[in-house]
Specification:
The chain has 188 residues and is α+β, with helices and mostly antiparallel strands. The chain contains five helices and six strands; from the N terminus they run βαββαβββααα.
Length: 188
Amino acid sequence: MVADIELIGGQEKRDIRVVPYDKAWPRRFAHERDRISAALGPLACRVDHIGSTAVPGLAAKPIIDIDLSVPNADDEDTYLPQLIAAGYHLRIRQPGHRMVRTQDLDVHVHICTAGSDWERRHLLFRDWLRHDADDRELYRKLKQQLASQDWPDMNAYAATKSPLIAEITERAEAWAHSTQWDFNRPRA
């Protein structure tokens, strides 16, 4: 456990590959959303496509990131058995967040508490990148540059993106304030 993050199965070395945007990603998300909704029913408060594969035109790792909001992410007994029965595997456990993934490692489902800052931050970042071409391009360039390096695991790669993500998030927050952006209002 490092900084309150438990990696189930320990550290994994994985190749980081960033590919051009694939128009099939939204369909892949829709398939997984339906699978999650069938497994959890009303426990799934929201199921949103997040991350780079949710931003049309943005190059990304070919991994569908999903934000699953439940009443209490720390109460695993209410949702985790159903997700495991649906074929997902627990990978990350940390306060307020769990991550399960598919056997093929091509879908990551981030579980958070409905209405949490975790949920809001990820939806805001996605919506801002959909809106702002300059930050979308900055983010693409960094990801492609970092993908050419050797990483001990995907978490190290993600941590290296944090300074730019924080910078972009500041601009996204200003935009959210000026436009009265509301993460509870559905966006296309």
